Structures are given as structure tokens and as C-alpha cells.
Amino acid sequence: MASHDKHDDDDVKIFQKKDFDKGKTPEKKEGARWKNSNVWSSLEFALSGIVTAFQRERNMRKHALTSLIVVVFGLIFKISEIEWLFLLLSVFLVITAELFNSAIENVVDLASDYNFHMRAKRAKDMAAGAVLFISGFALIVGLIIFLPKIWSLIFG
């Protein structure tokens, strides 16, 4: 079910029992990067998440390519401001849903340790269903905007 292109274990930190000697929490330089000390670090984490999704998630790249194509069609057909609003809303909703789906898949895979569990399957299926659902909305918006324009181009 996972749409991950590759699985890396290099992002997993393993602490040894001795790291917790005398009741102390281990302090490592890497740990500091997990804290949002200001708005800029929060923005950096968010952008890192988006970049990671594009690098690791095949479906995210497919959605991005489709989004680019519909934006080009919007420019070619000179769609109205309202049509742009609906088109861009659709694009952003699909990308956002895919980001949530990818995040849910990663958390479920981590929690289930890549073993099959019916609850894990259901969670991943529901997240994928959300992407499908919002993609249906995007398809309907695209048809409403572009079909009349294509029809008039061919038969007008």
C-alpha cells in the first residue's frame, strides 16, 4: 500500500542504555534540529517536508506534473479569475491531501514496523481514499472549466 520509492534507516536514531545514565536525556547535536526555535525554523521544517514528499513520493510527482499541465491549459485557454480560483483550489487541495496521505503512511509504517495489521491497512486506505475523493473534485472542476472551451475550439 505504501507509495514510498525508497526506505532509508539513516533517519532513525538509536540510543543506548548508557545514553540515559543518571536519569539524563541524551543530548546530541541532531536533537536540537527537532525544535522550532522561531518562525524561520518552522518554515524550514515545513519546506523540508514538502521537498521530502516530492523526492520520495511518486504520486506527489504525478500530482505536480498534472498540476503543471492544467495551469498551462489555463493559460492557453485564458480562463477567468473565478475559474483560476477553482482550478488553483483544486490543485492545492490535491497536493495537500497527498502530503497528509504520505505523512499518515509514514507514521503507520513506523508504528506497524512494516508488518501487516488490519488497522494499519484501514488507516492507509482511508488516507488514500481522501486523496481519491479530492482528486474527483479536481476532475469535476477541470471538466467544468475546460470541456466547454475544448468543445467550442473543436466545434465552434
TrEMBL record:
InterPro entries: DAGK, DAGK_sf, UDPK
Pfam families tied to this protein: DAGK_prokar
A GO-annotated cellular component: plasma membrane
Residues at which substrate binds: E98
Residues bound to a divalent metal cation: E57, E105
UniProt membrane topology term: Multi-pass membrane protein
Membrane-spanning segments: 63-79, 85-104, 125-147
CDD domains, per database record: UDPK_IM_like (cd14265)
GO biological process, one term: phospholipid biosynthetic process
Active site (record annotation): E98 (proton acceptor)
The organism's place on the tree of life at top rank: Bacteria
Binding site for ATP: E57, E105, K124, D125
Keywords: ATP-binding, Cell membrane, Kinase, Lipid biosynthesis, Lipid metabolism, Magnesium, Membrane, Metal-binding, Nucleotide-binding, Phospholipid biosynthesis, Phospholipid metabolism, Transferase, Transmembrane, Transmembrane helix
Cofactor note text: Mn(2+), Zn(2+), Cd(2+) and Co(2+) support activity to lesser extents.
GO molecular function terms listed in the Swiss-Prot or TrEMBL record: ATP binding; kinase activity; metal ion binding
UniProt keyword annotation of Cell inner membrane present: no
The family this protein is said to belong to: Belongs to the bacterial diacylglycerol kinase family.
Name of the featured protein: Diacylglycerol kinase
Protein source organism: Lactococcus termiticola
